[in-house]
Amino acid sequence: MILVLEKDITQNQKSNIRSILFREGYIVRELSEAGQNIIGAVGKGDREVEFFKKLPGVAKVVSISTAFKLVSRQLHSADTLVQVGDVVIGGELITVIAGPCAIESRDQALTIAKEVKRYGAVLFRGGAYKPRTSPYSFQGLEEEGLKILAEVRDVTGLVVVTEITSPAQADVMMKYVDVVQVGARNMQNFELLKCVGRIGKPIILKRGLSSTIEEWLMSAEYILSEGNDNVILCERGIRTFEPYTRNTLDLSAIPVLKNLTHLPVIIDPSHATGIREKVSPMARAAIAAGADGLMIEVHHKPEEALSDGPQSLYPKQFGQLMRDIYVIAPVIGKQLDFDYLDKVTAVDGLSKVNGKEFQRAAFLGEVGTFSHKACTQYFGVKVEAVSTPSFRRIFESVKKGEVDFGVVPLENSLTGSIHENYDLLLEFDLKIVGEIALRIIHHLIGHQDTGIDMIKRVLSQPIIFQQCRQFFERHADWELVPVKDTAGAVKEISKTGNRADVAVASKEAAKIYGMTVIEEGIETNPRNYTRFVIISADQLDKGPRRKSSLIFSTGNRPGALYEVLKIYAENGINMVKLESRPIHGKPWEYMFYVDIEADTESEGFKPVLNSLKDKTDYFKILGSY
Ligand code: PEP
Ligand code: MN
Q1: CATH superfamily of 548-624
Q2: Per CATH, domain 2-62 is 3.30.565.10
Q3: Is the pTM above the cut of 0.90?
Q4: What is the pLDDT of the chain when averaged over all its residues?
Q5: Which residues pair with 619 in a beta bridge?
Q6: Ligand 1 in reach of 236 Cβ (< 6 A)
Q7: What is the largest CA-CA distance in the chain?
Q8: Do the two domains 94-332 and 443-519 of this chain adopt the same fold?
Q9: Ligand 1 atom 1: the closest Cα is on which residue?
Q10: What is the structure's pLDDT at 34?
């Protein structure tokens, strides 16, 4: 049951409620949900609900209707985020776990780990205790395998996960690994579930071969009821009558689970299909269906693998899959970051340089703008997002060191470049250290009881009116009021209380300011993406740099631009953007903005750099990232 507490409850009343619940044999969880303080109480207590309703400080009591309680969304409406080292599972960043079925040797594990890390995996998997169908199959390297996993973590920085098959392994698991997996065959091994409930490490709980979702959630309940709230559910295919795949991947489990539970959900398409070429299509579908992450078997020599070779991807195939996921994720409002771990380490490393425990990043407007979303998706929760009134102020704050980073939009797929920021990049001597693309979905937001025919004024940024042109053409009598930022518009109408005023902004903004979405997705073209860049005073010392942004100008001679572009062509450098901007104070002369797929700081780029400087009048590297 859920006890909703009165707003002005005293500390004494709260302690009294807690001790009564303990005495009656309940497991107690104190939560804060949508601004309300609640106590979740789960257990076998046999008192009537009426008894608890009468306790001083209790506003109301709601019973949880499902068999599972602690894992239920009824108890805990917000998503649970499971933190392992620097990795957060269950948020807006897709988590990819990859590695071989089994650890076979130090060399094998390190080779595969380096490959999967290069392509953007954040957790490394590998079995040391293998639950094999046949007693004559390879059973795993046991503790030796765990030691190798620990070494993989030390060498690569990847977080490591392995399967536990018996409570007797709990101590060695504690010693060597970061995340513990309960396999499909042990999903209802209740002694093992109780054991991992006390282990103090996040648990990946795989779905049993023939288990219903409810049985699976009841197993998760065992782990939570022992005090371990960090459980990640992993769908890995169930037994059906269909023999063409090893199992049948139940993708509908994702939206079903998302409704029933607050726990993160990941998908293992490797065991689900059992066939290499079926893994990537199902992985892509899983992300599109809302999975928080993937667990993929990868082997550099699958034909020699001691287990599950036929379903293991070659590293290159894994890399290709990651590129696909990178593209799919923003469609559903998430991100895959190829450099996630290196970036966190680099941002943390700044503390040593500037002595500040937390870094700060400036974004445009109020909390809830798309810039704010870009900021939190890029940095996660460890960097403080600082609301800033204008793009110029963002550049100034970074320059003065008031913040460590700035997040600014550079271009939109429908409306083109945000020229103000291109000009500011030229004016301020700052570096681009990263980029992130967001899909921009606009919502018409108003008061709960605002009907579409009551609307008279719409508040938003002018560029957003352009992106929703067709929708507003159908409502030509509405007055479009330009404001500085989208979330600010929602905040303003929430304050005035005028039912005839609405705003256009993100779904998040509606939620933050307690407003209602009147019409969803009103942008003219759903392929509406904005690319943001992260600016900083210095280059960020993170992983491989894939892309660079440059500015240059040439003399006004025939073929001058051609000579510069020829350098890229001759060196096989892919140019992904070219744009020209007038040079201030020099009519009809232009500055060129170029993005290339290369690292300007690499040794190999040096000769190219010299040629470029040779052929240009002005040349500046905005950053490699
Ligand atoms: C595994 O992940 O290697 C494994 C044995 O998976 P499952 O328990 O899903 O069969
Ligand atoms: Mn396997």
Answers
A1: ACT domain (3.30.70.260)
A2: no
A3: yes
A4: 95
A5: 552
A6: yes
A7: 90
A8: no
A9: 101
A10: 67
